[in-house]
Design a protein that fits this description.
Elements (H helix, E strand, L loop, with lengths): L1 H19 L2 E8 L7 E8 L7 E3 L8 E5 L8 E7 L10 H9 L3 E6 L10 H5 L3 H15 L7 E11 L1 H10 L5 H10 L33 E5 L9 H5 L5 E6 L12 H7 L5 E6 L15 H8 L15 H18 L1
Parallel strand pairs: 1-4, 5-6, 5-7, 7-8, 8-9, 9-10
Antiparallel strand pairs: 1-2, 2-6, 3-4
Helix pairs in contact: 4-5
Length: about 350
């Protein structure tokens, strides 16, 4: 009897683990009748375990397994909204998404019009403020119209962003864009890969429709930045007044942008210490926060576009997989502690 009982317990634990690892997935086109439709992807804990399919995988990057249109698990779950970097897309942090869902989060991401892999529209790109409003509009849909409404803990919402996505979520946290300060900083630290984007992103001169006030979204309770850029465009005063808990994660390997101490470090310098955590991974590079790369990825990228192999290069100490493990532990600790 004891052996049979142990067997039943083992089966129950196995079934529970499989259920916990089931990731539901859906894609929707939001606001299709507006001037700025949003292609959104949503992941959520799913009761349905099969059939699984691999998404976000190609010849270069490793994807993850999901159940498309799975039945959402019972209960309410915290929400994470993801914002990709300049020229990126919803696939870039799929490794992070999968782990968050397995730990009981609903995650949503979108492709920002004008600054995504598949859309380099100059006008859309120059409307810098609309990246932040994209996230707020996605959150509007999740909380008011989506089929996940009853499964959302609307008091527990986080925004995470990589690179320009990190800059975007800082706007949502209450940081405010200061054009004059950015121009002054670019005279001191005139890096072409950061300051060179000023014109394209509409930061060099006032744009039609530019908001007069900040873009803080009070529904977002905390933010995480993954090696953000253009930090020096945020007014020091707005950073000093920031009350939204902020986790600042930075890459210590310099790939030719401004060193992290002049980007992530700028945030850490001015955000009050009681409202932020600041972690530097000395062996991580800017793209280490993105998907796992396949063994032949660097050669393939270099053959297609010389120099692009940097996307799959990390430091010399830990593999990207081990870096992801460390990053995830820091992120989930912050989400649960704050």
């Amino acid at each position: 009897m004891r052996g049979f009982a142990s067997f039943i317990l083992l089966v129950a634990c196995w079934a529970s683990n499989v259920l916990a690892q089931s990731v539901g997935f859906d894609q929707v086109l939001l606001y299709a009748d507006s001037d700025r439709p949003l292609k959104a992807s949503v992941w959520y804990p799913s009761q349905t375990q099969i059939p699984q399919e691999r998404i976000a995988e190609n010849a270069v990057f490793v994807g993850t397994d999901v159940v498309r249109l799975g039945t959402p698990s019972q209960g309410e779950f915290p929400v994470v909204i993801l914002s990709h970097g300049y020229g990126g897309n919803w696939r870039n942090e799929n490794w992070l998404v999968t782990r968050l869902v397995q730990d009981g989060y609903i995650v949503a991401a979108l492709d920002h019009p004008g600054t995504t892999t598949f859309d380099h529209n100059p006008l859309a790109a120059s409307q810098w403020w609309r990246r932040a409003t994209d996230v707020s509009r996605l959150l509007d849909w999740l909380l008011e119209q989506s089929y996940l409404v009853k499964h959302i803990d609307d008091a527990n919402i986080t925004a995470i962003g990589h690179s320009l996505g990190g800059w975007t979520v800082m706007l949502l946290a209450g940081a405010e864009f200061d054009r004059n300060q950015l121009k002054q900083e670019c005279e001191i630290y005139n890096n072409p890969r950061t300051c060179g984007l000023m014109t394209e992103l509409g930061m060099d001169q006032p744009q039609i429709g530019e908001p007069a006030n900040g873009l803080k979204d009070a529904r977002i309770k905390r933010v995480v930045t993954l090696d953000l850029g253009l930090a020096r465009s945020f007014s020091r005063q707005s950073l000093q007044a920031l009350t939204t808990p902020t986790l600042i994660l930075a890459a210590g390997v310099d790939i030719g942008d401004l060193p992290q101490e002049k980007e992530s470090g700028f945030l850490a310098q001015f955000i009050p210490k009681q409202n932020r955590d600041y972690i530097v991974y000395p062996d991580a590079a800017h793209f280490s926060f993105m998907q796992l790369c396949k063994p032949n990825a660097i050669a393939m990228l270099e053959e297609e576009v010389p120099g692009d192999g940097i996307i799959c290069r990390d430091g010399d100490w830990r593999s990207r997989e081990k870096l992801h493990q460390a990053m995830y532990l820091d992120i989930i600790h912050f989400l649960q502690a704050s």
